[in-house]
Structure formats: C-alpha cells, structure tokens
Amino acid sequence: MSSLQVQKNSVPTTTSAIHLVSARRLIVKIGSTLIADAQIGEIRGLWLQSLIEDVVRFYKRGQQVIIVTSGAVAVGSRHFNHLDRPLRIEEKQTAAAIGQVRLMLAYAQKFKCHGFGLGQVLLTCEDIDDQHRRLNAQLTLEQLLNVGAVPIINENDATATAEICFGDNDRLAARVAEIVNADVLILLSDVDGLFTEDPHDNPEARLVKEVRCITPEIEAMAAHSPARHSSGGMVTKLMAARIAMDAGCAMVIAKGNKPYPLAAIESGGPSTWFIRSPKAGMPDTCTKLAP
Ligand code: GLU
Questions:
Q1: Ligand 1 in contact with 169 (CB < 6 A)?
Q2: 41 close to ligand 1 (CB < 6 Angstrom)
Q3: Which residue numbers in the chain have pLDDT < 50?
Q4: DSSP calls for 200-268
Q5: CA 272 to centroid of ligand 1, rounded, Å
Q6: Per the structure, how many domains does the chain have?
Q7: pLDDT tens-digit profile of 228-274?
C-alpha cells in the first residue's frame, strides 16, 4: 500500500477526509495532462493504475464513483504530429474519436484487474440541457451503478458544439454531479487549487483552503490564476464550482499528478474546497486560507 493511502477503517481527521469519507456518491474529473503524455500520445499507465486503486478503495467502503475523463484529444493527436500548427477544431474532434478508444481500453484493462466492469457514456452539456436526453442519461448512469459497472464519461467531442462546449469537461463534470445528486465533485488538475494571486509572480500568494461563497474577490483570484496546461484554467473551474454548489454538491480542486491522487487529498494534501455555507449571509467567513 502506498504511504499516501488511508487505512480502510481509520477515523477521518482532515476536513478533506471527512468530506470524502462521508460522501455517498462522488464524481472524479481527470484532466488531460494527468492521464496522457500529449508529446508522445501515450497513456500514463502507472498513474492510471494508482488512480483506479484509489477508486476501487472508495467502492469497497460502499461509495459510488463516476469518472469524467479527459485525454482523448491528447492521446489521439499523435496522428496529426506531421502538422506544424495548432489543430483545427475538426482535427481535434478526429483525434478525440481515435484517442477515446485507447483511453477506454486502458480503463477497462485496469478495472478488470480488480474485477470491475465499466460503461462508457459520451455526453455534451446540450444533452443535459434537453429534458428528455438528460433523463435518459440519468437513467443510464443509475443503471450502470446498479449493475456495478463504473460509469466513465467524456464529452462527446465529435458532436459538441465547438464554441459552446468543446474542451470543457470541468463544467460537464459539474452538470453530471448535478443530475446524479453527487455529494462531492473532485477536479484533479495540474494546480494545487485556487491561489490568492499567481504563485509564479508572487511568492506571498496563498492557497485558499475553503470557499463558501463565490464573491467578486474569488472571481478576481481565478482570473489571475495561471491556466497552466488545463484547457479551461481556473475560470472554468469556478463555473463548475458554482454549478456544483448550487446543486448542493461540495467540490474540491487538487493537483493530481502524483500516484494515488485521491488518497493524497484524503490525507490532507493541498486543495481548495468549495462548500456552500448552510447559513445565508456569512460574508466574514467566506474563505479560509492555508496557514
Ligand atoms: N473531451 C476532451 C478530451 O477527451 C477534453 C476536454 C477537457 O479537457 O475539458 O480530450
């Protein structure tokens, strides 16, 4: 067992552990840079294995986990390596169609080692906006969980309306959290969380540990955050937080690049939690900063 993993029956002590252990249903969103090495178009197999061990641990303690995964474009783009320019939208969509197959094969193989099956669901935000399609998606996801198949979701990149939806799995994950009544949404990213300022520019910048309401001050912090490699950066993460909090779902952002990323959050690693305050009008306690 990794030193980062939490003992099965240990009493949760960190804020993160309390939220993660008490959640009945969780959504885990995985950013492209974590799962795929875009330079060579390869899946980071050992990292994926550790993530899946984390997910299996959650299932074994009676929790349900739905995965929203990016990475299809990153894995499939090597077919366009000969182009010396950024990919056009239809080329990215083609890369996604190719990469998605390899992505799912990798998930299927690794889950199979633990005796788990899985089901692939490709969705767009527009599907969720449509009452009939949303209901179909909800029923499919419930049934997958009922039959013990881990739902793995990605954006349906080939049909996504380019300008509105393409490349926004943060928001899609929050919409999924909303329709399945998830308790916690975990955004695994390439940043530790939300900082008061860009930590690359200002060494005094501090990690915000907890946000209870999204104020203009919080929005300004997100606008200054470096986008790094993630497609949407902190601004789309904040949009996701708003959707999740409105749906009564807590959300956490954490860097997921090390093995066992969920165990790392659970054992109190750096992260930013977005948790709607139960009481309205608490301006003084809107945020908590890391010491
Ligand atoms: N659906 C895209 C992919 O699988 C990624 C979208 C995103 O990262 O937000 O590559």
A1: yes
A2: no
A3: 1-9, 229, 282-284
A4: TT-TT--BEEEESS--HHHHHHHHHS--TTSSSHHHHHHHHHHHHHHTT-EEEEEE--SSSHHHHHHTT
A5: 22
A6: 1
A7: 545 568 999 999 999 999 999 999 999 999 999 999 999 999 999 99
Asked if 172 and 123 touch (Cβ cutoff 8 Å), the reply is yes
Q: What is the pLDDT of residue 2?
A: 39
Residue 5 lies in a domain: no
CA 3 to CA 252: how far, in whole Å? 22
Answer whether residue 9 is part of any domain.
no
Residues 230 and 31: their CA atoms lie apart, in Å, by 7
Give the CATH number for residue 211: 3.40.1160.10
Give the residue numbers spanning the domain of 138: 15-274
CA distances from 89 to 95, 96, 99, 173 (A): 10, 10, 15, 21
Contact 158, 97 (CB under 8 A): yes
Q: How far is 286 from 42, CA to CA, in rounded Å? A: 41
Q: Is residue 85 part of a domain?
A: yes
**How many residues does this entry show for the chain?**
291
Does the pTM surpass 0.85? The reply is yes
31 C-alpha vs ligand 1 centroid, how far in Å?
Answer: 7
Q: Contact 153/107 with Cβ under 8 angstroms?
A: no
